[in-house]
Amino acid sequence: MRSENKTPTRDEHAATSLVHAGGALDGAVEFARRACSLEPDNARRHVALISVYIAAGLTESARKEIETTLRIAPSDGTIAEMIAKLGVPR
Fold first, then answer.
1. Residue 2 CB: number of other CB atoms within 10 A?
2. Which run of H or of E encompasses 5?
3. In 10 A of CB 40, how many CB atoms?
4. CATH superfamily of 10-86
């Protein structure tokens, strides 16, 4: 990953908490997008957004975000797991 900051932002934490709690996914999407905008080169932030998109059933958005994330961190194993979950060929 380009960015070494592995500490979740407040927005990323809020997004993943909403997903895990079965909360409002539209709010989770917004929080995760905001986390990405704060650190656009941090693949971890994008992986959180991919997770939220998957939980919300936004498969096409998840696919697009995977492509963005692969450009940031092409050898990240977490991203490979997301791709497998969606059935997107690498």
1. 11
2. none
3. 13
4. Tetratricopeptide repeat domain (1.25.40.10)
d(CA 63, CA 30): 17
Nearest CA-CA partner of 46 in 33, 56, 28: 33
Parts of the chain with a pLDDT under 70? 1-24, 87-90
Q: Which two tokens stand for residue 53?
A: 């998109």
Task: Provide the token pair at 14.
Answer: 């809020």
What tokens does 76 get? 């990240």
- What's residue 26's pLDDT? 76
Alpha helices in the chain (DSSP H): 10-20, 25-38, 43-55, 59-72, 77-86
Tokens 């060929």, residue? 89
Domain boundary assignment for the chain = 10-86
Angstrom distance (rounded) from CA 26 to CA 48: 14
Cβ-proximal residues to 30 (8 Å cutoff; 6+ apart), any chain: 15
